[in-house]
Amino acid sequence: MKIRLLGSAAAEGTPAIFCRCELCQKAKELGGKDIRTRTSALVDDNLKIDFPPDTYMHVLRDGGRMSEFEHLIITHTHHDHFYPEDIRMRTPDFAKDYGDALNIYGNENVVQRCRETLANEMEHFNIAPLQAFTTYEIGGKLITPLPADHKPDEDSFIYFIEKDGKTCLYGHDTGVFPEETFNWLAKRVIDIAILDCTNGLIDRKAIHMNIEAVKDTKAKFTELGVLHENSKVIATHFSHNCGLLHEDLEKLLVPSGIDVAYDGMELTI
Ligand SMILES: [Zn+2]
Ligand SMILES: [Zn+2]
Ligand SMILES: [Zn+2]
């Protein structure tokens, strides 16, 4: 399984779209791994997780094949993860020769928003609701949505993805995982865990995690016996509010065996 992280920022991006803070100024000067677009991931080129407003920019940056995915799974309806107005660009008025109907999966709110936004073009999309703790076969992979602690008015999901005996936990957006999610994961092995580190050193672990919560989650995984010696734990979805550059994040996380995501990071298991 091949996973490409297309973005690694929280909702506002880094540098943040309208921000003049010190961190954003430094990020502009440094460029490279300090430029973070909104999060999304491409798995094996045929399945995409989330559809942020930066998707068009990701297609320009990464080349045409980036937009040839057949399956789209959505974590929740915050705008940095779900921008259905641009999904509508995959219809005959706006695109030619783009392949079969796109399969879109998510919670009831995702399904509802798709039905509203794509109302006149529904024949170009297959939209299916997902339930937590149910495993679905999607694009040659087994996908299980798990409950997150994130958006109280909808069932936000994180996703457990399996293929050929390899596994990836796509673990954001969420605060410290609900107990039922830990209980489900306790019976699995995780090769790659990608975790929410929005808050950096800010003392907040609900809705989004911080560095301490990411470290605690890794420790809990170790205690549950779900990691092995080659498992990778990766922190992502960083907010400019935490005031930390890529280099700062590496100093805080790498000694604990946690890698720091960046735009374009590729993982193969
Ligand atoms: Zn987000
Ligand atoms: Zn800023
Ligand atoms: Zn969110």
Report on this structure.
The longest helix is centred in the last third of the chain and has 14 residues. Helices cover 22% and strands 24% of the residues. It is built from 7 helices and 14 strands. The protein has one domain: Ribonuclease Z/Hydroxyacylglutathione hydrolase-like (Metallo-beta-lactamase, Chain A, 4-Layer Sandwich). It is globular, with a radius of gyration of 18 Å. Strand 10, helix 5 and strand 11 form a beta-alpha-beta unit. Strands 6-5-4-3-2-1-14 form a 7-stranded mixed beta sheet. It has 269 residues and is an alpha/beta fold. The structure holds zinc ion (3 copies). The site of one zinc ion has 7 residues, from loops. The site of one zinc ion has 6 residues, from helix 1. Pfam families: Lactamase_B_2. This is Phosphoribosyl 1,2-cyclic phosphate phosphodiesterase.
Short précis:
Residues 67-215 form the Metallo-beta-lactamase domain. By secondary structure, this protein is an alpha/beta fold. It has one domain (2-268): Ribonuclease Z/Hydroxyacylglutathione hydrolase-like (Metallo-beta-lactamase, Chain A, 4-Layer Sandwich).
Helix/strand layout:
Blueprint: E1 2-7, H1 22-30, E2 40-43, E3 47-49, H2 55-62, E4 71-73, H3 84-87, E5 102-106, H4 108-117, E6 125-129, E7 136-138, E8 141-147, E9 157-163, E10 166-171, H5 179-185, E11 192-196, H6 211-224, E12 232-236, H7 246-253, E13 258-260, E14 266-268
Parallel strand pairs: 3-4, 4-5, 5-6, 10-11, 11-12, 12-13
Antiparallel strand pairs: 1-2, 1-14, 2-3, 7-8, 8-9, 9-10
